[in-house]
Structures are given as C-alpha cells and as structure tokens.
Amino acid sequence: MANSWRSERWDSLRLLTPNWQSRLPGLRYDGPDPDGYMTMGEVTEFIEGFAKVSRAPVRTGVNVTSVRQAGDGYQVTTSDGEIAARTVVIASGACNRPSVPQLSAAVPAAVRQLTPFDYRGPGELPDGGVLVVGGSATGVQLAAEIRRSGRPVTLSVGEHVRLPRLYRDRDVLWWMDAAGVWEQRYDELDDLNRARRLPSPQLVGTPERSTLDLNALTELGVELVGRLAMIRDGRALFSGGLRNVFSLADLKMNRLLDTFDEWALTSGRDGEFTPPERFAATRPPQSARLQLDLGSGEIAAILWATGFQPEYGWLDVPVVDEKGRLRHDGGVVESPGLYALGLPVLRRRKSTFIHGIEDDAREVIAHLAAYLAAR
Fold first, then answer.
1. Taking the CB of residue 116, how many other CB atoms lie within 10 A of it?
2. Which residues, at least 6 apart from 35, have a Cβ–Cβ distance to it below 8 Å?
3. Is the pLDDT of residue 6 over 70?
4. Following DSSP, what letter does each residue of 124-156 receive, concatenated?
5. What are the φ and ψ backbone dihedral angles of 300, each rounded to 5 degrees?
6. d(CA 367, CA 261)
7. CA atoms of 36 and 21, how far apart (whole Å)
8. Do residues 92 and 151 both lie within one domain?
9. What is the pTM of this model?
10. Which element (helix H / strand E) includes 238?
C-alpha cells in the first residue's frame, strides 16, 4: 500500500493538506498536530492503517499487466495470475509518470535531466546551477529546497495558481473547505477540461505554515524566467510577459479571497477571524532573461517539474483518448462496467485529495451496484 509515496517522492515532501483533512471512512488523523502536514512516512503509515481498519482483501506486491474485455466482463492479468471480473474500478491515480515536454530531447548531453520521480534531495545533484521548469507546487518546493542547499536556481514559470498558506489566521485549505469551494461539482463547471488541467497551487506543508510564492522564492535568491518555449542550438528560450502572467495569478487569488470574505459575512462568522487582508503583488524581475546557454556550464541540471500524467499502458480497452486521458463521465468510463476514482475533478474539486475520495466513491459505487443489479 502507498507505494507511490514510498518509492516515487522526494525525501522532504509533505502533504499540502493539513492533518485534520486526512480522513477516510473509519479512519481520521488523531495525532497531536492537527494543523501540521504529514511527512512522506506518515502518509504511508496512514494509508496502510486504512487497509487494516477497512479489512479490505488487499493483495500487495501484485502488478496488473492487462485489463481487457472478456464476454460481458473483464479479464485482469496480474503477476499473480488471472482474475475474471464483472466490473473493474481504476483507482491508479493521475500521477503515475512525470510529464516531460518533447523539447527535452534538445538539451545538451552534458546537462543532467531529472524529474520529481528521480529526485530525492539536493545532495544527489551535480555541482552547479539548476534550472527548474514548472511553477506549480512541485516546482516551487524543489526550487526552494535546492536554493537553500547553496546552488544557483533558475525557475521557469508559466501559468500558475498562487495561494497564501494562511488567510485570516486559518489555513487557506480550511477556507476552501468551509466556503464550499471543494464541493463544486464537475457538472457545474463552465470549462471542465480546463479545471482538470489546472496546475496544483503554490503551496508547501511546513511546520512553520509558511507561504511559498514567487516573492518568497525571489527573496531566497531564485531567478525567475518565463515559460520555456524552445531549446535551439543548445540555448533555452523563454517567453516574455512575466508581468502579465503574475498579474493574472494575483487577480485569480484575490477573487478567491473575495469568495472567502463573502462566505464569512453571509454565514455570520466574520467576527471569528482577523480582518480581511490582501497580499503584495508578485514582483517581476527587473530584467528577466529570455535565453540561457545550456552549453556554457552555468546550468548543470534541469529538473522537469512540468506535471504528471496517468499511465494506462496496461489498459487494453479503447477508452483512452489521443492525449492519454481516460474518457469518463464523473468516473463512469465509456466501456460498461468500467469505473474510475481519484482523477482530477472526477465529481468534485476535491476529488484528488485524501478527504475528497469518499463522496466520489459512494456515487461511483452506487452506479456500479445499479449496473450489476440491472444485469
């Protein structure tokens, strides 16, 4: 259980969600630090604890190599034999492999390339500067950690979601929960595909409950550049317009904070919190570089923090689109009897969080049960 947290995460990683939000049916965090953030080891223990509490017939150490249609059901091939199933629920997640752009093929051979799956800590990096590509949660966390190790760091930033760690003395994810933002359903969204592609917010879980936005990275000495657009003749070319990118992220953050303030007023709870506040605008660099010579020796490594994607190479059913995404409606996959859980905005905005899976699971399994009953 929890194999991805045990073997595919960097050593210092913590959950972005506070401990009190870690809850599954029959199991809730009951430790001494409800407002803290679980470490990698603690997440593994929590999930293993759920396996014991639920007493589900979990078979560990078994790899699924194929799922294919067989009659009116499915044949599942595993490293421990065959399983015939009337229905199958795909709960393998959305972060099975790193998403690395094709332009990585043009990086000079002397520059080491890594993904978050390869990275464990700064000590494993070669001496010299590091280019981190991607400004979501993973990118800002790794940029900060590597910079604190003493290495020069350049962060390539595109569209991103800026959030403060604390707002009006509460965790920002407390506000998301209380104001009902997490509960927004997939069939209520104007642009579901965009919502499912949004990068993870710039957050980090630390004992200090600190904010890690681009301003904080600038103060650490991280150099900010625009989105990596091309690598040509060994030179990395970055897009301009950082000021506009930053302004858009700030605008969206302030709109979300307005939502929180409105909820506090309409719920009659405004007096429970400190007064509303707004944060300093993201500061663009005075003169952002538009290119970087990767053959000069300035950059020794590139860390691709450019997102993750699911892996469906084992799924021998024609339900995956040309971009590698599962075709489904709220977890009901196009092939009868096939279901999914744990994908972004599956049925609600909270779908990929530990505490968000339960409501989705109840509805998906209700559909599954009705499908079986109808047969």
1. 23
2. 18, 19, 20, 171, 209
3. no
4. GSPSSEEEEE--SHHHHHHHHHHHHTT--EEEE
5. -95, -25
6. 37
7. 10
8. no
9. 0.93
10. strand 235-238
Among 24-33, 217-226, 301-310, whose mean pLDDT is lowest?
24-33
Residues 48 and 112 occupy one common structural domain: no
Backbone phi and psi for residue 143, each to the nearest 5 degrees, phi listed first: -60, -45
Q: What is the pLDDT of residue 3?
A: 59
Amino acid letter for position 138: T
Q: Within this chain, do residues 210 and 323 fall inside the same structural domain, yes or no?
A: no
On whether both 91 and 102 belong to a single domain, the answer is no
User: What's the domain range around 118?
Assistant: 98-307
**pLDDT tens digits, 54-96:** 888 888 889 999 999 999 999 999 999 999 999 999 999 888 8
**Tokens for 313?**
């190479």
- Where does the chain have alpha helices with state H? 3-7, 40-54, 137-148, 172-178, 192-197, 214-220, 242-266, 357-374
Residues 61 and 51: their CA atoms lie apart, in Å, by 14
Same domain, 130 and 146: yes
